[in-house]
UniProtKB/TrEMBL annotation:
<feature type="transmembrane region" description="Helical">
    <location>
        <begin position="21"/>
        <end position="42"/>
    </location>
</feature>
<keyword id="KW-0812">Transmembrane</keyword>
<feature type="transmembrane region" description="Helical">
    <location>
        <begin position="297"/>
        <end position="316"/>
    </location>
</feature>
<dbReference type="InterPro" id="IPR001633">
    <property type="entry name" value="EAL_dom"/>
</dbReference>
<dbReference type="InterPro" id="IPR013767">
    <property type="entry name" value="PAS_fold"/>
</dbReference>
<dbReference type="Pfam" id="PF00563">
    <property type="entry name" value="EAL"/>
</dbReference>
<dbReference type="Pfam" id="PF01590">
    <property type="entry name" value="GAF"/>
</dbReference>
<dbReference type="Pfam" id="PF00989">
    <property type="entry name" value="PAS"/>
</dbReference>
<dbReference type="InterPro" id="IPR035919">
    <property type="entry name" value="EAL_sf"/>
</dbReference>
<dbReference type="GO" id="GO:0007165">
    <property type="term" value="P:signal transduction"/>
</dbReference>
<dbReference type="InterPro" id="IPR001610">
    <property type="entry name" value="PAC"/>
</dbReference>
<dbReference type="InterPro" id="IPR003660">
    <property type="entry name" value="HAMP_dom"/>
</dbReference>
<dbReference type="InterPro" id="IPR029787">
    <property type="entry name" value="Nucleotide_cyclase"/>
</dbReference>
<protein>
    <submittedName>
        <fullName>PAS domain S-box-containing protein/diguanylate cyclase (GGDEF) domain-containing protein</fullName>
    </submittedName>
</protein>
<dbReference type="InterPro" id="IPR000014">
    <property type="entry name" value="PAS"/>
</dbReference>
<feature type="domain" description="PAC">
    <location>
        <begin position="573"/>
        <end position="625"/>
    </location>
</feature>
<keyword id="KW-0472">Membrane</keyword>
Length: 1254
């Protein structure tokens, strides 16, 4: 027992210390914070007081200087008024007069002087003589005053008078008698009077303080304590202070001087002159009274902390005495329990290790462990469960088997707006719908099942939310169902995200082009179905791979290095790639690869959009092969060399290992004439012309039942199961070994087949009309090498070979066949149109004619939009028929001297000559596009075809064939990029403007000077009342040589060159003048004028509008300015401000061409506009396009809902008018009422307008 008592005392002291130290520390912190907070508030008030005192000082000084200046000015004016002309006659009289004014001189410390009309000094006052009255500065003021006849005042100057330096201001008052200058009165005023200096010294502003007076150019600086005075140039910090004083008149602020020393400066603007008077005091001196207060605060806080620590110690000592007694009693009880549980030594060690609270805790634990262990565990589990449920972000609730709430989580309280305490015990139907409550209560009947469904529930925010609802029963011992727990998940965001992802997914999934998304290392993360369809790889096979799986190895390494360098630099890459499908088949793609960036601008992925251009490339290669074969056939070479070269070309083109030729001889047999080829290992396996008939390689038609014999007869009977015949009688098979025995001597050369290890073969007859004169044979070891498409193309080559090598026709037939050969050389076999070679030949001649005549021409490159989709979905046969129909339709809409050519798979070219300008080309192209969009009925299919057209003009764009074709191709691709079904002229923004554009620009600059512009007016009709509501002013150019030039020709050029600004100024002024004349004549018309984008973005727009309205006299309420959607959306916030300023001037505002831009309704409702104008492109096709009718209807409804006026442009038919009237359109304009009219015709139209038909 003697050992335990000290241990408990030690523990009590330990607990006392643990509590006392934190309490004392907390008290010290609170006292410190309170003291510093009070000191901070007091310091702020003291600083404000100091600033106010200094501001009061400056204000008082400024008022004294203002009063002194005002009084002295009045004094001089009084003296000048009393000065008689006789006084100026003699110096003595003048001196006496000045001495009589000694009172004012003594009062102001002023000197006075009189001058005659020529500026000569007459007399100087001797009461207060002043040197500055004879200074050069006074002489300058005197000359100015005599010339201007107005009093003059100088800047402050320093004057050395009687060994004192004084700041003075010089005055000169001209003496006017009967409008004539008879002399002048000069005066100098001591700026700082004794009273001001005494007042200033009365304030203890510190040794470093000084007074400054600035006039914008120089600064007068006066030390308030040391008394020195100087004038110096105005420092930068004083310039800033002076500018603020001129605006705010008086202020006090902290700043730094030239040496970056902190100052407290108070400045006051003088009322008499634009001078700024300031008092500057170092911050340390200004706020010096704060230092003693800070020290006193520290001492006070330290004393309070010491007293608080002693008080806490004594209090804790008193409070801990009962705790020590309680600890002793509890320890005795716990010791008994511990002796029953185990050795006492361990318990004693634990008790010694802790303080009184530890002993109490241990003792209570031992007692309660046996009586409350299960209950404590249960409470912990319940608490953990409630914490877990509250941590669930979604609403969770649980009810008993009667449907009454047992509890819920915090999310449920927030969502439904009911506290948990109010819900417990209430029925479920008070919060949730009855049908949902029934589902919950029904779970007790199905305790082993989980219910899950989507519901619509009303939340506390007043809106219905889609939720995923789940419910399950829970049980208790001896009870099958004690209650039901339910959970709700708000799936609003998920549904929106799913809908957005669904749309984006459909756009990507249904895109006809192949799309790949990779990470930054090039690993494929996504491919769309078009990619799988094109390459043969499934999504599972492609994802995780590198796009190198498609690499055919045909492009050099530098090509891909350039590609990676471009996209890693953050730019788009465009180019053509030759890739390999999963099957090994090669194909061509036009690829656009773009980097995808995150919000920080870092590249995270790449996306590649690839268009299959294999058909186009194949057509180009086929066209090239056809041209080269026909060129060889036309050469005067030996027959053997010619055939060898042709077979080499066919072998290189087809990729087959061997190509051979049988030609009919005089004995009607068909021996192998020649063959070229290679073995699979790459070694040559040539077969030269045969003369030895012992090899049984000669086949005669009908001589056997062999396949070759039947083909030569044109009788494809007995076709093997795995073989295929074309419509022209050609045979091809893959693989041949399954159906054709090599021993068939009439089929092919057995030795050659073994040499080639042939597995695929084609036999193509050389037909001359209905007669077969030869056989073209292809062999390859790859069973996939030969296809029907290849065989059908080679049939056209075989036909040309047959024509060239038939030697049994008479001379007339030979000539006809030569003509046919020439035709095939320059024409497309499918459509009968000229081919690329013919086009180039005609283009060369057209360029020569243009150089001689100077008449321009145009090259059009026309590419059918999505033709590949037609080919892939409906088949090549229907695609060929479609191409022939397109060719025929184009031909019927061209002139006789126009050239139409097919230069690729779905590409056509057109050559125009003898044109006037680009507008003529545009009109003809629009006719072609309109004809193309008409439906085509082919094989029970109604097809609609559109085209993208690129246009290059010669000689403007180029004088070379290749340059023109390339320019047209660039323009065609630009048309496709901008939306397809449109045409695009070639433009070279990076090159100098062509000579014609420069000439047009020069003429445009002269048009304003020569008054070649004129305004036309198109009437606007009120569709409700039928009256003429107003007009739109439209600009026209009356060119002396070109005639009336359309705005479409010169407005874009004016925009680009900036001439639109002076032209727009002329248009608005002319329109306002005409509007003013109408108003004077009593015509209540409203006039609309278009405002260009460049005009709208001018900084001086509002000033310009004010000037025009002021000059022309038109009332702004009758003037309406029209801007397009794109101009208004260029800089939305700036546009809103400008439009608001325009509306404040009374002008009306209209959005022109509405529906063609990309304006947001959230911004549209903020635009302070009066009117929406529906673009004419939606009105002209109201009766033929339901979509345009829907758009027009929506715009009218939108305008009426926003209480805006709506005007429809392009009304040309009565049906258009009826449609718009039925939907409540306010006004309309168009050719149905009148074209744009000259002024006289327009006024006549207004006078004789009968109104709308009933």
């Amino acid at each position: 027992m003697n050992l335990k008592i000290p241990q408990r005392r030690q523990r009590a002291n330990s607990l006392k210390l643990k509590i006392s130290l934190p309490v004392a520390l907390l008290t010290a912190v609170l006292l410190t914070l309170t003291g510093y907070s009070l000191f901070g508030l007091f310091r702020q008030e003291l600083e404000k007081t100091i600033e106010r005192q200094q501001g009061t000082l400056v204000g008082s000084l400024a008022a004294q200087i203002d009063d002194r200046l005002l009084a002295f000015t009045g004094y001089l004016r009084h003296v000048a008024a009393q000065t008689d002309t006789q006084v100026l006659l003699t110096p003595a009289a003048a001196a006496r007069f000045l001495e009589q004014q000694s009172g004012g001189q003594l009062l102001f410390g002023a000197g006075l002087a009189l001058f005659d009309a020529q500026g000569s000094l007459v007399a100087v006052s001797q009461t207060r003589p002043c040197r500055c009255l004879s200074s050069e500065r006074l002489r300058q003021l005197l000359e100015t005053a005599l010339q201007s006849r107005q009093p003059q005042m100088s800047d402050f100057v320093l004057s050395q008078e009687n060994s004192r330096t004084e700041p003075r201001v010089l005055y000169v008052f001209p003496l006017l008698r009967q409008g004539r200058v008879v002399g002048a009165l000069g005066g100098s005023l001591v700026l700082f009077g004794p009273g001001l200096l005494n007042y200033l010294q009365a304030f203890d502003t510190g040794a470093g303080s000084y007074l400054s007076l600035s006039d914008g150019r120089q600064m007068l600086r006066l030390s308030t304590q040391e008394g020195w005075l100087q004038i110096q140039p105005l420092p930068p910090h004083q310039r800033t202070l002076r500018r603020k004083a001129l605006v705010e008149r008086s202020l006090t602020l902290e700043q730094t001087d030239e040496q970056d020393a902190p100052l407290l400066s108070s400045v006051q603007r003088l009322q008499q002159v634009d001078w700024a008077l300031a008092v500057h005091q170092p911050l340390a001196e200004a706020y010096a009274p704060l230092q003693p207060l800070r020290q006193q605060l520290l001492v006070a806080v330290a004393g309070k902390i010491a007293l608080a620590a002693v008080a806490v110690w004594l209090l804790m000592r008193q409070l801990m005495r009962p705790l020590s007694q309680l600890t002793a009693r509890i320890a005795a009880v716990a010791e008994t329990e511990e002796q029953q549980a185990g050795p006492a030594a361990d318990v004693g060690e634990e008790r010694v290790a802790g303080d009184e609270l530890a002993v109490l805790q241990r003792s209570f634990d031992l007692m309660l462990q046996r009586i409350g262990q299960h209950r404590q565990a249960l409470e912990e589990q319940l608490q953990q469960l409630q914490t877990l449920i509250d941590a669930i972000p979604n609403p969770v609730f649980y009810v008993d088997d009667r449907g009454c709430f047992i509890g819920c989580n915090q999310a449920f309280e927030i969502v439904f707006g009911h506290p948990r305490a109010e819900l417990v015990g209430t029925a479920l139907t008070g919060v949730l719908p009855a049908e949902l409550a029934a589902i919950v209560c029904g779970r007790c009947n199905q305790p082993d099942s989980l219910h899950s469904s989507e519901q619509q529930l009303l939340f506390a925010d007043g809106r219905e939310h889609p939720v995923l609802f789940s419910a399950a029963a829970f049980s208790r011992a001896g009870q099958a169902c004690h209650g039901v727990v339910g959970a709700l998940v708000d799936i609003s965001a998920r549904r929106r995200a799913e809908e957005q992802l669904r749309k984006l997914g459909l756009a990507v999934e249904q895109n006809p082009n192949a799309i790949i998304v990779t990470d930054i290392q090039g690993t494929i993360e996504y491919v769309n179905p078009s990619f799988c369809h094109l390459t043969g790889y499934s999504q599972e096979e492609a994802i995780g791979q590198n796009p190198r799986i498609l690499n055919a190895g045909s492009a050099p390494r530098e090509y891909f290095q350039t590609l990676w360098h471009t996209i890693l630099a953050g730019h788009d890459w465009r180019g053509e790639l030759r890739n390999r499908k999963k099957t090994g088949e090669l194909f061509w793609q036009h690829a656009l690869i773009s980097p995808l960036k995150n919000s920080r601008g870092d590249i995270t992925h790449f996306i590649a959009i690839m268009e299959d251009i294999t058909a186009r490339k194949r057509a180009e290669r086929r066209e090239q092969l056809t041209g080269r074969v026909l060129a060889l056939l036309s050469l005067p070479n030996e027959r053997t060399d010619k055939i060898h070269d042709i077979l080499e070309l066919i072998r290189d083109f087809s990729g087959c290992a061997s190509v051979g030729l049988r030609l009919r001889e005089a004995n009607q047999s068909f021996p192998y004439y020649q063959s070229v080829g290679k073995k699979p290992d790459g070694q040559e396996c040539p077969l030269l012309p045969l003369a030895d008939e012992t090899l049984a390689e000669s086949v005669a038609p009908g001589a056997s039942d062999s396949l070759c014999s039947r083909i030569l007869q044109g009788l494809p009977q007995g076709v093997p199961v795995d073989g295929c015949f074309t419509a022209a009688g050609s045979f091809w098979t893959n693989p041949m070994s399954h159906c054709l025995p090599l021993a068939d001597s009439g089929l092919c050369r057995e030795q050659h087949c073994h040499c080639q290890q042939a597995r695929s073969m084609a036999l193509i007859p050389l037909r001359l009309e209905d007669e077969v004169i030869g056989l073209l044979q292809l062999l390859d070891a790859d069973e996939r090498k030969i296809s029907r498409d290849l065989v059908e193309f080679l049939e056209s080559i075989a036909s040309s070979i047959a024509i060239a090598f038939e030697h049994r026709q008479v001379t007339e037939q030979l000539q006809e066949r030569e003509n046919r050969l020439d035709y095939l050389r320059f024409h497309d076999s499918l459509t009968g149109l000229p081919n690329r070679q013919y086009l180039r030949q005609q283009l060369r001649q057209a360029l020569a004619r243009t150089r001689r005549s100077g008449q321009p021409g145009a090259v059009l490159l026309l590419d059918l939009d999505r033709f590949k989709t037609v080919n892939d979905s409906l088949g090549h046969d229907l695609g060929d028929r479609l191409l022939r129909e397109i060719a025929a339709r184009l031909r019927t809409n061209l002139r006789e001297n126009d050239v139409l050519a097919r230069i690729g798979g779905d590409e056509f070219a057109i050559l125009f000559e003898g044109l006037r300008d680009g507008q003529q080309v545009a009109r003809r192209v629009e006719v072609l596009m309109e004809q193309l969009t008409r439906a085509l009925c082919i094989a029970d299919f109604e097809l609609y075809v559109t085209a993208s057209i690129g246009i290059s003009l010669f000689p403007n764009d180029s004088n070379e064939i290749e340059g023109l074709l390339q320019a047209a191709e660039v323009a065609m691709y630009r048309a496709k990029q901008t939306g397809r079904n449109r045409y695009q002229f070639y433009r070279t923004e990076m090159n100098p403007r062509t000579r014609d554009l420069l000439l047009l620009e020069g003429q445009l600059r002269q048009a304003l000077e020569k008054e070649q512009f004129v305004l036309y007016y198109q009437p606007k009709i009120d569709l409700l009342s039928g009256r003429v509501a107003g007009a739109e002013a439209l600009l026209r150019w009356q060119h002396p040589e070109r005639g009336m030039v359309s705005p479409a020709d010169f407005i874009p050029l004016a925009e680009e060159t900036g001439l639109i600004v002076p032209i727009g100024d002329w248009v608005l002024r002319q329109a306002c003048r005409q509007l003013h004349q109408w108003q004077q004549a009593g015509l209540p018309l409203r006039l609309a004028v278009n405002l260009s984008g460049r005009q709208f973005q001018q900084e001086q727009l509002l000033d310009w509008l004010d000037a025009v309205l002021a000059d022309c006299g038109a009332t702004p309420e009758s003037l309406e300015l029209e801007i397009t959607e794109s101009v208004a959306m260029h800089s939305v916030e700036n546009s809103i401000a400008i439009l608001g300023a325009i509306r404040q001037r009374g002008l009306r505002l209209a959005i022109d061409d509405f529906g063609t831009g990309y304006s947001s309704l959230s911004y549209l409702k903020r635009f302070p506009i009066n009117c929406l104008k529906i673009d004419q492109s939606f009105i002209r096709t109201l009766d033929s396009d339901a979509n345009d009718g829907t758009i027009a209807d929506s715009v009218i409804a939108l305008a009426r809902a926003m209480e805006l006026q709506v005007v429809a442009e392009g009304i040309e038919k009565p049906e258009h008018l009826q449609f718009l009237q039925q939907r409540g359109c306010h006004e309309g304009q168009g050719y149905l009422f009148a074209r744009p009219l000259p002024l006289a015709e327009f006024e006549d139209f207004v006078a004789n307008w009968p109104g709308l038909p009933a």
